[in-house]
Structure formats: structure tokens, C-alpha cells
Amino acid sequence: MLVFASYIEPKEIQIKEITRDNIGETVAITGVVESIKESSSGSSCFIELNDGTGKINLIIFESTLVELKEAGNDLNSFKNHKVRVIGSITEYKSSMELILSNSNSIKLVS
């Protein structure tokens, strides 16, 4: 029997479909970046993503921000553009959020 490990594409989901049942799941969402804000310490970044069914905050932590910058990606270049992101669903202060998986998990969509 041949066994191989391959990358499994995350489930594409609409923001309106996200519930507490999805916490911990890795999903893909395509939407428009409406705003980008850095934390007061500058160690993380908050992106508001709108897919037409709702809005969700995408959280990018310091290690991923460093990777993005080292790869020459300027987050501001994503503002007002359609992107596809992959991240894990979490909850913070009763709001659903998405934590970016890694620096390769945000891509512009044409």
C-alpha cells in the first residue's frame, strides 16, 4: 500500500457561515481588505476583511509580519484589493477572528 502525505487545501468559507463550531478550523476566505491597523506595540496587525457576506478581523502576529516584510510584501499594498487568506478561526471578546497561518497565506486575487 502506498501512503503519501500531501497538502490538503483548506475549506473555502464565507464569513457569514462562521460560527463557534468552526473555532480551531483552518479555512480559506476571499474578500476585500477594508482597513489595516497595527497594534499599539507594532508587534501585530489587524486587517478588516469583507467578503460581501460579512466582515472579519484577520490577525497577523509579529513572526508572520517579519516574514512578510523580509519577503518584500508591504501590507498596505493589499488595502482595497481582493485577497485570499488562509487562517485558523478563533474567538476574542465574543467576536470571531481569523489568525493568518503564515506569510504565504495571503495572496492578491485578480
Description:
The protein has 110 residues and is mainly beta. It has a single domain, classed as OB fold (Dihydrolipoamide Acetyltransferase, E2P), CATH 2.40.50.140. The chain is 8% helix and 43% strand. The protein has one helix and seven strands, in the order ββββαβββ. It has one helix at residues 62-70; strands at 11-12, 26-38, 45-50, 55-60, 82-92, 95-100, 106-108. Strands 2-3-4-6-5 form a five-stranded mixed β-barrel. The longest helix has 9 residues, at 62-70. It is globular, with a radius of gyration of 14 Å. The mean pLDDT is 91. Residues 27-100 form the OB domain. GO terms for molecular function: nucleic acid binding. It comes from Methanobrevibacter olleyae. This is OB-fold nucleic acid binding domain-containing protein. InterPro entries: NA-bd_OB-fold, NA-bd_OB_tRNA.
Brief sketch in words of this structure:
The chain is mostly beta strands. The protein has one helix at 62-70, and strands spanning 11-12, 26-38, 45-50, 55-60, 82-92, 95-100, 106-108. It is built from one helix and seven strands.
List the helices and strands and how they pair.
Layout: E1 11-12, E2 26-38, E3 45-50, E4 55-60, H1 62-70, E5 82-92, E6 95-100, E7 106-108
Parallel strand pairs: 1-2, 4-6
Antiparallel strand pairs: 2-3, 2-5, 3-4, 5-6, 5-7
Domain OB: 27-100
GO molecular function, one term: nucleic acid binding
Protein name: OB-fold nucleic acid binding domain-containing protein
